[in-house]
Amino acid sequence: MSIAASVHAQGVATTPGVVTTQKLSASLANELVGESVRECVQKGYKVVAVVVDLDGVRQALLRGDGAPVHSLDNAYYKAYTLASMGPARNEESTKQIADRMAKAPPSTVPVFPLPNITYAQGAIAIVANGQTIGALGVSGAPGGQFDEECARAAMAKVRDRMK
To answer: Partner of 81 at 20 to 30 A CA spacing, among 9, 90, 101, 161?
Structure first.
């Protein structure tokens, strides 16, 4: 009984069968996609940025002026891939996932057996208090490394508000 009282006093949920998760606020998610697009615009890239939670649900999306239409899906696929596959292996970017996949032995399993999965570079984990809580995907720059650079620059601008 004293353990339950101690846990309750610390503010930890004690309701059996209830799972508590974290995700960005709508305001911060919108700021993050805005900063991502802004960073890329400054470099001359027309991109789409999307934030997803760990369920792969879009929290915020911004299509920059002139960004290619296919980048809407691709930015989501990048973020979805990282949110759904990254936490299990503590991978914090689609590049890390792609690098791991490239080292895997040949297989007869199709490379893309799941919907919405891409191993293209351009998504990074959204981490708060040491835990991945979502992903930021960017698409439209002339290479995934440039998408990722814009995402990382945007994340650096908001990181201090995710504690």
So the answer is: 161
User: What DSSP state is assigned to residue 31?
Assistant: H
Half-sphere exposure (CA, 13 Å, Cβ side) for 24? 30
Residue type present at position 68: P
157's enclosing H/E stretch is helix 144-158
The tokens describing 53, both together, are: 């939670």
- Which of left, alpha, beta for 122 (phi over 0: left; psi -120 to 50: alpha)? left
| Band of pLDDT at residue 106, cut at 50, 70 and 90 | confident
